Amino acid sequence: MVDLTKYMKKGLVEQKPGQILAFASYTNKIPDIVKFTIGEPDFNTPDHIKKAAEASIENNHSHYAPSNGTPGLRKAAADFLAKKYGQKYDPSEILVTNGVTESIYDFLTAVINAGDVILVPTPIFPLYIGDALSMGAQVVQIDTSGDDFKLTPAKLKAALDKYSAKVKALVMNYPTNPTGVMYTQAELDALSDVVRDKPIFVLCDEIYSELNYDQPHASMEKTLHDQVVLMNGVSKAWAMTGYRIGVVAAPKPILTQIAKIHQAITTTEPTPMQDAAEEAFSKGQDDALPMKKEFQKRRDVLYDGLTKLGFECVKPKGAFYIFAKIPEGLEQDDTKFIYDLAEKGHVAVVAGSFFAKGGEGYIRLSYATSMDQIKEGLKRLEKYVKENRK
User: Fold this and answer.
1) Buried-exposed string 141-160: b where 16+ CB fall within 10 A, e elsewhere
2) DSSP state string for 243-274
3) Torsion of CA 371, 373, 379, 385, to 10 degrees
4) Could you tell me which CATH number the domain at 61-283 has?
5) How many CA atoms lie within 13 A of 278 on its CB side?
6) Which entry of 94, 260, 287, 379 is 20 to 30 Å from 101 by CA?
7) Which CATH superfamily is domain 4-44+288-388 in?
8) Which Pfam families would you find in this protein's record (predicted)?
9) Do the Cβ atoms of 36 and 349 come closer than 8 Å?
10) CA nearest to 88, candidates 250, 203, 253
11) Could you tell me how many helices (H) and strands (E) the chain has, helices first?
């Protein structure tokens, strides 16, 4: 019998299965476990949005929508970006995708040729790296752990100098998963200056834009519009992860090419879900505020609790993650640490090494869970640290 897996796409075979989901699945077998694993708001979708989805079904909006998205949703998304962040796009420059997950895939597929270099500041959500590798790109990880988990202009310039004309794109995600770090506008402007007028795309994943705690949302789009491919959506700010609606915004010549990939893999998104997303963008522009206030409270409780136990953390400025360094005296292999903590302490966290270079020796905790679970998790973690510190 022929082993056909040997003849499959090289980059795909080398790509590791999703470690985060695999570990989350493993912890499901442990009774009474407190989970800080999955980045999904534990809130419900606002009622007015649910009613919009119901009305769409009742009104028989059950047929194919235009491939790039319904006109109503594309206008609502463009208006939202302009009003909230000053990001000016025509509705014709908006593409509706199956979440930002598809947005990332569509963009990378549209721009990568085998051998192209993609620059990725790490630690970062591993999807970008896996997608790029499966497409034959050379992924250059820029370790930011020594710079408070922020990419610096000096490190970006050094990478450009080293890889020169091979660099096709820079990946930026802010607020950042897994660290919760947010850049100031001045910091993003300085990065923009390094790549300005070079034949380099900048993927700006801004899905957590409504969850900025200490400052207005900043964006590279403001100073690098013609090179930025902007991504956003309704999953995080409106607790609509299951609706699977993301948006890509880019200058029309670029968007037209990305849309060809979208047409080939999904054709279009479900019409009732698009109608619900239109309601979110147009009539729910402040829906995230109560959720953001609650996340801030949870962040503070979890941050204070972790630091008292000896975990070093950069205090998150956005999203709903804390990236904590494992204290000395405990198991320093972060993968071994999380399995041991799950089995002995009944607390589930994610290994920092799952997020690429710079994550080794850290754990990520998602505080998209109830305050009661956070407090219980801290109690269990305190007990585990006392019993296992050498």
Assistant:
1) bbbbbeeebbbbeebbeebb
2) G--EEEE--HHHHHHHHHHHHHHTSS--HHHH
3) -110
4) 3.40.640.10
5) 19
6) 287
7) Aspartate Aminotransferase, domain 1 (3.90.1150.10)
8) Aminotran_1_2 (PF00155)
9) yes
10) 250
11) 13, 13
Q: How confident is the model at residue 29 (pLDDT cuts 50, 70, 90)?
A: very high
> What do you get for the CA distance between the two ends of the chain, in Å?
52
Cβ(318)–Cβ(213) under 8 Å? yes
Taking only the tens place, the pLDDT of each residue in 304-354 is 999 999 999 999 999 999 999 999 999 999 999 999 999 999 999 999 999
What residues are paired with 201 via a beta bridge? 169
- The pLDDT tens digits for 107-148 are 999 999 999 999 999 999 999 999 999 999 999 999 999 999
DSSP string, 172-200: EESS-TTT-----HHHHHHHHHHHTTSS-
Reported confidence tier of residue 186, pLDDT bands at 50, 70, 90:
very high
pTM, two decimal places: 0.96
Sheet holding 117-122, edge to edge: 94-97, 246-249, 228-233, 201-205, 167-173, 117-122, 138-143
| Tokens 């957590």 found at | 208
Residue 266, token pair as written in the block: 């999904």
pLDDT at 14 over 80: no
